[in-house]
Amino acid sequence: MRRSKTVSENAGSTGLSRRDFLELSAVFGGVLFGCSSSNSAPHPVKHAPLDGGLEAGAAEAGVEAGADAGAVEVPFGIWSKLRDAVRASPDHLTQVAAALVQKKDPTAIFEFVRDQIQTCPAANNTIATGQRWGTAATLRGGMGTPREKAELLASLYQQAGFTASVMTAFSSSATDITSTVYTQQVSRTFAPTVDDATLASWTEQMTVVPGMPLATTIDPDDSERQAVISAVTPLLPASAAAILDGVPPVATSLVVGTMPIVAVTVNGKVQYANPLLPTAVFGMSYGENLAAAPAADPL
């Protein structure tokens, strides 16, 4: 599945995209993602730094000696550092959200959900209540229905210690709002906290690990996929059709009239937060006739 082109996944100082970086991680070894070409994981190996600058005792601990590529346990120490580097990237939404929760800044939490979570249509004209995959997946994927954005915002407020709940607010300017809710531009930068020299060092260290599977391209000419399609298609009845609830959405399911928003209590005062509108400010609902409405179950 391709991501929306409205989301930018720019490379950081390493010059690698997130996809390139994850492919490089896979080259380091399949067990990074819980799989391997062999029946057992590679045995850990500890290496001294390539420049010989490891401090005493660090080799036994399997840690780096300074910013340069020091001794790490191979392969597991390198995999751990790759994971940490990705988590420290500003586009790792779950880590960014966790840091904001720790700071307990209600405005910053609101702006994060408003600016970094894209909005997709709900199913069957359920703008105020409809969910597709739930708040956890909405945060990980950076996209959710209007209700999921509001539920995510309320959840982050609750994790930060605030009292928060999702409500609905009616807007008389539904047509104007709709065009901005679904076309919001989101920009994210992939900048893992590792430099090119360290990556090169880790790559060199990984080449001596016994039993490490070599990187291979899966179905490079697309022949295997085409063969499966050719074998399955004749078996399908002529009337077969994909049924996806609410996809593509009908015109009425795109109109944002009744908006899910969040009521949060800050310093004893109830404040409203509307994460759907790109220009919304914390403290304003941008609607009227506020009411509570239970969320529908995810599809």
How would you sum up this structure, described in words?
Helix content is 34%, strand content 15%. The chain has 299 residues and is α/β, with parallel strands linked by helices. It has a 4-stranded antiparallel beta sheet with strand order 9-8-6-10, with helices on one face. A two-stranded parallel ribbon has the order 1-7. Strands 2-3 form a two-stranded antiparallel sheet.
Task: Summarize the structure in short.
The chain is of the alpha/beta class and 299 residues long. It has helices spanning 18-28, 58-61, 76-87, 93-103, 106-116, 135-141, 146-159, 174-181, 196-206, 223-232, 251-254; strands at residues 7-11, 45-46, 73-74, 118-119, 143-144, 163-170, 186-190, 258-266, 269-273, 288-292.
**General form:** flat
Order of helices and strands: EHEHEHHHEHEHEHEHHHEEE
Q: How much helix, percentage-wise, in residues?
A: 25-40%
Round the Cα radius of gyration to an integer and report it. 24 Å
Low-confidence segments: 1-6, 30-42, 47-69
Helix and strand content put the structural class at alpha/beta
| Number of E strands | 10
Oligomer: single chain
On the 0-100 scale, what is the average pLDDT?
79
The description of the largest β-sheet is: 4 strands, antiparallel
Query: Which strand order does the major sheet show?
Result: 9-8-6-10
Distance between the termini: 18 Å
Q: How large is the share of residues in beta strands?
A: 15-25%
Query: How many helices in DSSP terms?
Result: 11
Name the features.
11 helices; 299 residues; two-stranded parallel ribbon; disordered N terminus; flat; alpha/beta
